[in-house]
Design goal:
alpha/beta; UDP-n-acetylglucosamine1-carboxyvinyl-transferase, Chain; about 30% strand
Length: about 425
């Protein structure tokens, strides 16, 4: 088991490049199950979840390769079963359900695992697929699905679910007739998946809005496609510059997809300037506490909640964060408190009172974004912060200690 050591107090300076988006690459990899022919993907981040997805594709009957940041997949002998051994480690594995039903008319997919940040049920996925003609039963921890050729349907989500929208987008691409998804998720990663499906020959319009139209086609073919850059990784580096009172040029930063984050950072006193080759970020005077409410896109992303909380810990005054997406996503609060943060919880609301300084201590990561918040707090703190259970961090950040070291951070790995 590895841990990260962060010795804080160094302003970060230089250029840091954003990798491909994990949350776009994972559904795109599952969508490769729909293709007849070879799919070639570029800008794929080298992350634990990506390797898990490629192993799952292998088990489901694809030939895959992964060299550098280029991945390929080609279906050879499709199988309907996604085993628990892989699915338990990664919630995105359930995204093979729609493609398997669309291609094979059957699927046996283990109920998913992943970060312990709250209930993320798959019932919206199943209800939508049932509207398209699938039938399901749950037995021994598996979702068993059967269908003939799926039929287009008019589906309105109770909540703009990202995974549900993605699963139904993929299934609808090969369904008979038109599918309309209302109250669909508007996240940029959903839009990237739709653009990838269109590159394979799908007929999707309205992606990026709350109403998506899909005209089913007879088949999808292989293609070449570049995965979008990771907006959450980019947002994390924007905070890293601000929390260390440094100055970074964040290259390949999807700035338009970070509107809600950049608005709050500017409100806190962070200078952001879009350049031809990236986004320049530095402090613009003292940091100030603000009020944040997490919302589905285009609101403030829940995946940036822990990071902006770390920044608010060293800001002047008091701010608040209301978590409206997941009911159990404040587990990093007690770890930030170990570093000297002053945070009180009231249900889904965190009240953050800024302190003069944070001080290094041993802490433990509880989920992916909590890990990032502890790295950020460690970068700002005096002394050394020891962060254990960093396997969470490796699920979403490619070579984060190498990237941060290159811009001046004192950060390294050690065995526990």
């Amino acid at each position: 088991m590895e841990k990260l050591i962060v010795e804080g107090g160094v302003p970060l300076r230089g250029r840091i490049r954003v990798s491909g988006a994990k949350n776009a690459a994972l559904p795109i990899l599952m969508a490769c199950l729909l293709a007849e022919g070879k799919v070639e993907l570029s800008n794929v981040p080298r992350l634990r979840d990506i390797h898990t997805s490629l192993r799952l594709l292998d088990i489901l009957g694809c030939e895959t390769s992964f060299e550098g940041n280029d991945a390929t997949s080609e279906v050879t002998n499709l199988s309907p079963e996604a085993p628990y051994e892989l699915v338990k480690t990664m919630r995105a594995s359930v995204l093979c359900l729609g493609p398997l039903l669309a291609r094979l008319g059957e699927a046996r997919v283990a109920l998913p695992g992943g970060c312990a940040i709250g209930a993320r049920p798959v019932d919206l996925h199943l209800k939508g697929l049932e509207r398209m003609g699938a039938e399901f039963e749950l037995t021994e921890g598996y979702i068993l699905g059967k269908s003939g050729r799926l039929k287009g349907a008019h589906i309105t989500f109770d909540f703009p679910t990202v995974g549900g929208t993605e699963n139904l987008l993929m299934a609808a691409s090969l369904a008979e007739g038109e599918t309309i998804l209302e109250n669909a998720a508007r996240e940029p990663e959903v839009e990237d998946l739709a653009n990838f499906l269109n590159a394979m020959g799908a007929k999707i319009t309205g992606q990026g809005t709350s109403v998506i139209h899909v005209e089913g086609v007879e088949k999808l073919t292989g293609c070449k496609y570049k995965v979008m850059p990771d907006r959450i990784e980019a947002g994390t580096y924007l905070v890293a510059a601000a929390i260390t009172n440094g100055e970074l040029l964040v290259e390949d930063c999807p700035f338009q997809e970070l509107d809600a984050v950049s608005y709050k950072l500017r409100e806190m006193g962070v200078w952001l300037e879009e350049k031809a080759d990236g986004v320049l970020v530095k402090r613009n005077g003292a940091l100030r506490g603000v009020d944040v409410v997490t919302q589905p896109h285009p609101g403030f992303p829940t995946d940036m909640q822990a990071q902006i909380m770390a920044l608010m810990c060293v800001a002047e005054g008091t701010g608040s964060i209301e978590e409206k997406i997941f009911e159990n996503r404040f587990m990093h609060v007690q770890e930030l408190a170990r570093l000297g943060a002053n945070i009180s919880l009231k249900g889904r609301m965190a009240i953050v009172r800024g302190v003069d300084k944070l001080v290094g201590a041993p802490v433990m990561a509880s989920d992916l974004r909590a890990s990032a918040s502890l790295v950020l707090a460690g970068l700002a703190g005096a002394g050394k912060t020891h962060i254990s259970r960093i396997y969470h961090l490796d699920r979403g950040y490619e070579r984060i200690e190498e990237k941060l070291s290159a811009v001046g951070a004192r950060i390294w790995r050690e065995n526990e």
